[in-house]
Amino acid sequence: MTNTALVHHRWSRSEYERMAVAGVFAPEDRLELIDGEIWEITPQSSLHATAVRKAEEALRSVFEEGFDVRVQLPMALGPDSEPEPDVAVVPGHLEDYRDAHPCRAALVVEISDSSLDYDRSTKARLYAANDIGEYWIVNLVDSHIVIYRQSDGGEFRQQMMLGIGDSISPLANPDEEITATDLLP
Q: Which domain holds residue 79?
């Protein structure tokens, strides 16, 4: 009897992008690369899709100048991660990202139902490690929003919860407010 070692391959962003261009993935595949691992994204419920649209509309009304609000588009976070957050507010204009995905964001929002544990752990660590200024989870399971702030390169040091009737000002635009109702379907 022989012992066979299992090999776990970690992918780089450039390998992942080359696989996509080469047609390794089907066009309908919903995937993201997180810390060198390719994750399949679960299909969206209508509630999830509605929350994505609500977040997009709320953020576009608050971030009109100097930012691009991107919906379910890739971000280049380090050499081995290319997540596709539900909504990301990135500096600049959409044309700034014609040749490369953004590598930083003022705010990232994930809409969470079946992905809640993943978004609280894996995604939170990824965004904190890449100095994302602010990370919001719209928790559809419990009908509240969790706000993460002050990343220290590995985790967020501040966490707040917003319920119906509560509001918050994004760090990148403190003169504006968004209510939990603006985000929850």
A: 43-183
Task: Tell me 96's DSSP state.
Answer: G
Counting the structural domains of the chain, the total is 1
Least confident of 17-26, 64-73, 156-165, 176-185: 17-26
Residue 176 has pLDDT above 60, yes or no: yes
Query: Rounded to the nearest 10 degrees, how much is the dihedral formed by the CA atoms of 43, 46, 47, 51?
Result: 80
Residue 33 maps to a domain:
no
151: β partners:
156
The CATH number linked to 116 is 3.90.1570.10
Predicted TM-score (pTM) of this structure: 0.90
Distance set, CA 136 to CA 64, 79, 146, 185 (Å): 19, 24, 6, 15
The gap from C-alpha 21 to its chain's centroid, in whole angstroms, comes to: 23
Mean pLDDT calculated for residue range 133-150 = 96
Q: State which amino acid sits at residue 116.
A: L
Residue type, 62: V
Task: Let me know if residue 150 belongs to a domain.
Answer: yes
Is residue 148 over pLDDT 90?
Answer: yes
Quote the CA–CA distance of 185 and 155 in Å, as a whole number: 28
